[in-house]
Amino acid sequence: MADRRTVVCPVIDIVSADTLAYFASPIVRGGFNWGLHFKWDPVPPAELGGPDGAAGPFRSPTMAGGLFAMDRKYFFELGQYDGGMDIWGGENLEISFRIWMCGGQLLIVPCSRVGHIFRKRRPYGSPGGQDTMAHNSLRLAHVWMDEFKYLSLRPELRNRGYGDISERVALRKRLQCRSFRWYLDAVYPEMRAVANGNKQPPPFVNKGLRRPKDGQLVLAGLLCLDVSEVRTSDPPRLMKCHGSGGSQQWSLGVRF
């Protein structure tokens, strides 16, 4: 690897949780929404314009988490993971922001593929009834997102505690990291800033939606309509199709 600050991820293929059948995934890259949920995005054509074309590594604003390779010493220099986060959720966005804003880069290597069994539901409990995903998201927002942390789809969390972040703030200062506005401008310009934190997402418009026999709602052949099985009040979002039903299995009614 020419630059030890380069972090690479494979394409994550899908292994069915029911049959162990293997399904190749399309070429997509990581993103997020203002609710701080990870999502998959189509790769902008400009990212595939290198000498290797679609076979070459391309930049990804975020990673899915769990499947990545980086220099071990660099991982510790960059601050490892946030020890104040609990259990699961948000850590993949936090390390993605940190990589980009603190001088590194995050690439997906399309010729590298790893099969993964996606669970149908979150297997982790909530100790003391705490929403650990919200707790973790608040920590990353207050450390890394600057003024954009207020552009949240969950304004009720603004007065919620998230623990001591002084160590992580000091880490950002010590590493001389860039602003989150720089990240949006230079790494993820496709991300549309919401003008009002209370503004709801625009209504979903069916332009190319298809419904296979397995009950999925598939857009552009690669993204499926997915609903959180932890926070049922959250709006549906587009995620990579995992083929295991559960959060991506839908039935169409007459009012759709």
Strand tally is 10
Largest sheet: 4 strands, mixed
Structural class call reads alpha+beta
Please tell me the CATH architecture by its name. Alpha-Beta Complex
Please, what is the CATH homologous superfamily? Answer: Spore Coat Polysaccharide Biosynthesis Protein SpsA, Chain A
CATH topology descriptor:
Spore Coat Polysaccharide Biosynthesis Protein SpsA, Chain A
What percent strand? 15-25%
CATH class equals Alpha Beta
Number of helices: 5
End-to-end Cα distance, whole Å, is 50 Å
- What string gives the helices and strands in order? EEEEEHHEHHHEEEE
What is the typical, i.e. mean, pLDDT? Answer: 81
Q: Share of helix among residues? A: 10-25%
What key attributes describe this structure?
disulfide bond, Notch binding, four-stranded antiparallel β-sheet, Spore Coat Polysaccharide Biosynthesis Protein SpsA, Chain A, alpha+beta, 256 residues, globular
